[in-house]
Structure formats: structure tokens, C-alpha cells
């Protein structure tokens, strides 16, 4: 694709970052500058990269305007097309989804990630990812996998799905210690729970391909891989197509290197974690776990604008599972949807059955029951952005 589809009159306006105090404003105003400094401190970049980071900080400062990529930057021509309506405008005045994506592309350009030279291909976020993956908490989480076979089959399904949902907040040990009743009833942070519908959908069809569109690396990717193994070993899927980023993006988004790091982490563990790691490695070599990296994964547009090759991939799947907050925003559109808008309305364009597993970390949401929305609003808490709530939504 070269340009997004024109806006539709029946869709609400897109999210922008010019409302002071909003989540989008906070990301542009606070989070992005802080990330530049964090990247600077994590790796000993030379003077050229340091000066480029300084220039990026000046550009994204409050009141700064969007500048084009240097003509010599790989991929600059494509981004010039995508940016033609935004160059020269304030960062806070363009679609937030676009601004976020362009920031990360400019950060990689500043660090020489794509340009030939000694810094080509060096993941600036790798120090953060690896520190989390090698943490002692991960040892505890992997050890708890030994308890999973002792659960009734339905509880195994729900436990592993919700572990993937919550990512590194999964706390399998807590989940397993709370008894044998339905997990969905015990996780009070679930604002929508279509868990049963997801498993029913897979049970009603012959095993086929499941597309799992990953989100974060490290401890959050581990339960995604465990879920993929569960789908394969229980014959819910004949194959799993794992969609990851073709290059580092959004700090912790998963790449091929991150998948390999996770497989090595599991394989080096003991007990059931090592068994799962071995099975997944065999699934990769045997073609049952296929890694997919499409350029569109790093494009600044919603999935409604996906190219034909991805549309065909999703159309051929028994189910596509979208993991995480960013994928949710791209799935339904990063827009000011009324929270009670049906999930099916935001995903009507999608070419096959789709499920969203998402911890809430941004304002966009659809599919809430009116009484749920009333109860959440009455708390006075930032339930949309705090990461304390989550959802499982399915559209068949």
C-alpha cells in the first residue's frame, strides 16, 4: 500500500495528541523524550548518533514540527509518500497512531539502524528486552508451567489464554493457587470476556491455521509461545503463523531475534518449560510454527488498510488472534469510538474470524456493555490506560 484509505463518514474522528493531559498528549510530550534519553544511556553510541538524538529531541519538543527523513535514509521515499500531508505540522496535530510510528522510524534513523555501517541492525531496545527476559521472575513463571497438566483441560485452556492476555502480569502462580473455578470469574480486571467463544470457535472447525499477531518481546512473548504450543498439541491448530515485526519498533515489539531468545530461554530451563521449548523448536523446523514479518507491521496505518498479501493470510486462517494494545488500536482503528460500539462494527472489514487479547493501555475501546461502562466510569480511575484491566473479544 502507498496511502491509507480515505476517512469514512460513519467513523468517529481519529485520536490526535493535542488535548493537554490526554493519554496521547502524554506519550508525545513525556514518554517519547524520556525514551530517547533511555536509549542514549543504554548503549554507548558515538558522537554522530548522539548529535542525531539531540536533533530528534529538538524536533519532537512541544511546538516542534514534523520533518522529513533525509533523502539518503533507506526507505525515505515510501515515508515521504506517507508523510506528505503531515510534514511541517506539529506532532500533536496529526493522527496519534501515525505520529507514534513516525517517531520510532526517526529514532531508528538517528541511530543508523538501516544505513550501511557498524550500527546497522543493532536493536536499540535489546538491553531492555534481554534484562527482562533473563530476570529471576521469569524463572518462577516458567517453573509454574509444571503445574498446568494437573488442571482439568478446560482450565488449562483458560489459564494459558489469560496468561497470554496479561503478558508479564500473568502471574500464573496466583492463577493456579485460586482453585478450580472458572478463571474468567476470578480476574476482576476483565471488562469483556469472550474466552468461551474463542475456544468454541476452534472446537467447531477442523484444525487449521491460526494467525497469532504478537505484541511485546521478553516475558510477554513467552506466554504467547506457550499458547501457540498449546494450540498445536491439543489439535486446535494444524499450524500457527506467528506475526512479528521485521525490525525493532515501539520499544519492546517482538522480532525474530526475540522469538529465538525466548525459545533459548525456555530450552535452557527445566521441566515442562524445556519440553515446550523443544517442541516449539521442532515446530519451527517442521513448518508448524511459521514466523511472518510483513513491512506493513511497521506502517503507520490501521489494519483496515492492510495490503492484499496480509488480507489473504488472515482470510485463510481459522482464527486470527491480535495481541496487545497497539494491535487493538490498529484493528478497530485509533478513533474516538463510543465505548459501547460493538466490536463487530470496528472489525467488519476484517477478512476472517478475529479475536483480541488486550491489556488496556490507551483510550480506544469498543464492545463494552452499558452497565460495565457505567461501573468503570463511576470508579474515577484511569481504567482505560492503567493496564489494570483487560479484555478478550471475538468476532466470528
TrEMBL record:
<feature type="domain" description="Damage-control phosphatase ARMT1-like metal-binding">
    <location>
        <begin position="28"/>
        <end position="369"/>
    </location>
</feature>
<keyword id="KW-0378">Hydrolase</keyword>
<dbReference type="Pfam" id="PF01937">
    <property type="entry name" value="ARMT1-like_dom"/>
</dbReference>
<dbReference type="InterPro" id="IPR036075">
    <property type="entry name" value="ARMT-1-like_metal-bd_sf"/>
</dbReference>
<dbReference type="InterPro" id="IPR039763">
    <property type="entry name" value="ARMT1"/>
</dbReference>
<keyword id="KW-0464">Manganese</keyword>
<protein>
    <submittedName>
        <fullName>Damage-control phosphatase ARMT1 family protein</fullName>
    </submittedName>
</protein>
<keyword id="KW-0479">Metal-binding</keyword>
<comment type="similarity">
    <text>Belongs to the damage-control phosphatase family. Sugar phosphate phosphatase III subfamily.</text>
</comment>
<dbReference type="InterPro" id="IPR002791">
    <property type="entry name" value="ARMT1-like_metal-bd"/>
</dbReference>
Amino acid at each position: 500500500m502507498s496511502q491509507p484509505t480515505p476517512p469514512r463518514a460513519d467513523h468517529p474522528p481519529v485520536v490526535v495528541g493535542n488535548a493537554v493531559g490526554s493519554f496521547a498528549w502524554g506519550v508525545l510530550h513525556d514518554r517519547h523524550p524520556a525514551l530517547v534519553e533511555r536509549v542514549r544511556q543504554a548503549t554507548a553510541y558515538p558522537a554522530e548518533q548522539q548529535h542525531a538524538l539531540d536533533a530528534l529531541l529538538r524536533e519532537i519538543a512541544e511546538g516542534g514540527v514534523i520533518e522529513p527523513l533525509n533523502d539518503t535514509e533507506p526507505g525515505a521515499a515510501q515515508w515521504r509518500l506517507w508523510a506528505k500531508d503531515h510534514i511541517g505540522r506539529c506532532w500533536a496535530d496529526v493522527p496519534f497512531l501515525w505520529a507514534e510510528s513516525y517517531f520510532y522510524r526517526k529514532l531508528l534513523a538517528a541511530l543508523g539502524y538501516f544505513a550501511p555501517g557498524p550500527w546497522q541492525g543493532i536493536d536499540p531496545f535489546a538491553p531492555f528486552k534481554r534484562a527482562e527476559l533473563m530476570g529471576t521472575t521469569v524463572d518462577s513463571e516458567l517453573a509454574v508451567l509444571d503445574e498446568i497438566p494437573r488442571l482439568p483441560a478446560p482450565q488449562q485452556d483458560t489459564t494459558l489464554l489469560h496468561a497470554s492476555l496479561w503478558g508479564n502480569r500473568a502471574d500464573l502462580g496466583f492463577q493456579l493457587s485460586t482453585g478450580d473455578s472458572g478463571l474468567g470469574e476470578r480476574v476482576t480486571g476483565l471488562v469483556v470476556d469472550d474466552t468461551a467463544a474463542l475456544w468454541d470457535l476452534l472446537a467447531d472447525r477442523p484444525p487449521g491455521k491460526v494467525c497469532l499477531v504478537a505484541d511485546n518481546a521478553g516475558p510477554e512473548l513467552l506466554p504467547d509461545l506457550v499458547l501457540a504450543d498449546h494450540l498445536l498439541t491439543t489439535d486446535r491448530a494444524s499450524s500457527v503463523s506467528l506475526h512479528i515485526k521485521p525490525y525493532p519498533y515501539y520499544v519492546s515489539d517482538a522480532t525474530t531475534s526475540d522469538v529465538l531468545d525466548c525459545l533459548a530461554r525456555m530450552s535452557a530451563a527445566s521441566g515442562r518449560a524445556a519440553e515446550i521449548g523443544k517442541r516449539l523448536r521442532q515446530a519451527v523446523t517442521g513448518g508448524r510454527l511459521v514466523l511472518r514479518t510483513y513491512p506493513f507491521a511497521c506502517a503507520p496505518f490501521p489494519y483496515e488498510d492492510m495490503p492484499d498479501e496480509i488480507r489473504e493470510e488472515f482470510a485463510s486462517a481459522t482464527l486470527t488472534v491480535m495481541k496487545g494494545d497497539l494491535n487493538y488500536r490498529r484493528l478497530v482503528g485509533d478513533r474516538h469510538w463510543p465505548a459501547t460500539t460493538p466490536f463487530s462494527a470496528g472489525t467488519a472489514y476484517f477478512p476472517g474470524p478475529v479475536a483480541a487479547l488486550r491489556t488496556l493501555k490507551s483510550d480506544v475501546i469498543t464492545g463494552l456493555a452499558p452497565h460495565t461502562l457505567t461501573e468503570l466510569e463511576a470508579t474515577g480511575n484511569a481504567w482505560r490506560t492503567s493496564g489494570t484491566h483487560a479484555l478478550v473479544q471475538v468476532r466470528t
